[in-house]
Amino acid sequence: MSRTDTYLADYELINAQSEEQSSRLASNEAMVGSALTLKEHSEDYTYEVFSEQGGSLGYISPQNKLAFKSAFDQSKVKCITLSLVYYSNDDKQFMGELAYQFYTPDPNAHEDAQAFSNFFKHTQKLIEEGKRPQLQISAYEHDYIKDNNGALEITKATPLPEFSKGEVVFKKQKSIADKMVQGLVSGTPQDRIKVYALVILVILIIIALIYFLFLR
User: What is the pTM of this model?
Assistant: First the structure.
């Protein structure tokens, strides 16, 4: 199987078509770097986008519909990540963008699937940090991922979408507040303890500042 047959990746804009979807994109339910799922609408080759909590965020209409459908249906390793949220002043709605990566390994190449799974985790982390990695890879990089268990460092970035007048970026990386919410909601007990400790530390710092600036 060739590289183009096994790997497909790019960014796609998410179109929120309801106030509810727009509100979810603006909320902590839609954190940059979080995993998304897609549900195909076969009649028009569009896909509904869902958050990790199961809420609908909107729809994508892939540019290369047939290639996307084939990769989406056949891939064994998938990574779909929220990469951006922006606001349209004209539509008075929040919209989004996702990054997708699909890998369809040779049926007998189990280690290759694991290598690409590791690579996808790396790109997801970069997106969480706001670095927008270039997801298309060369034939050399394709082989390097397989030979090195996914340890490919991406140095090239993908530019932001070309926004129309009145469209502004709302969030393009996971914030400290998002990380705290994630730690409280889905983290381990140790994660929750760290979050509580950080909150207490911030409160103590604020109290100390108030004391030294105003009460001394």
Answer: 0.79
Is there a single domain that holds both residue 120 and residue 198? Answer: no
Contact predicate 76/103, CB 8 Å? yes
- Within 51-135, strands assigned E span 56-60, 77-88, 93-103
Residues 158 and 214 in one domain: no
State the residue range of the domain holding 103: 3-173
Residue 177, C-beta contacts closer than 8 angstroms, at least 6 positions apart: 28
Domain identity same for 49 and 105:
yes
Do 36 and 143 lie in a common domain? yes
pLDDT tens, N- to C-terminus, the chain (216 residues):
444 568 999 999 999 999 999 999 999 899 999 999 999 987 788 999 999 999 999 999 998 899 999 999 999 899 999 999 999 998 899 999 999 999 987 766 667 888 999 999 999 999 999 999 999 999 899 999 989 999 998 989 999 998 888 899 999 987 655 555 544 445 556 655 554 555 566 566 666 666 566 665
